[in-house]
Input
Amino acid sequence: MIKLLFTIFAIIGGLAISLQASINGGLGKRIGTIETSFVSFAIGTLALLFMVIFLGKGNILAIGTAPKWQLTGGLLGAIYVFVTVLVVPKLGVASTIMAVIVGQLLMGAVIDHFGLLGGKQIPFDMKRASAMLLFFAAIYLFYRK
Output
């Protein structure tokens, strides 16, 4: 039951990412790619600030004890937002998200296989290789005219 609930949360996150890509792509045409990326992160930062103030239960002051590489998540998120703002108007939302998912799966498989970044080690087997091939076939079909 817990796995199902978290799967639903992940699907909701995916829905949000697709909406974000479409909204940011449209705004990017209007105000610029870098400007839209900035505005998106600024609004997100404000929303998260209020969540930390009113709902936060962690210890933000412990940030100084975190390894420096763990602070790169925001930079990687900025790269993602910038790329989607740039690419969505050219390829469309579905094709962009499909390519993003393939990239996520590739990196996820590498991270899992080697147990990188403190994650659980999950070997890359034939079942996962078959799934990746199907995703590559899907991306080919998405881009094919």
Observations:
- The radius of gyration is 18 Å.
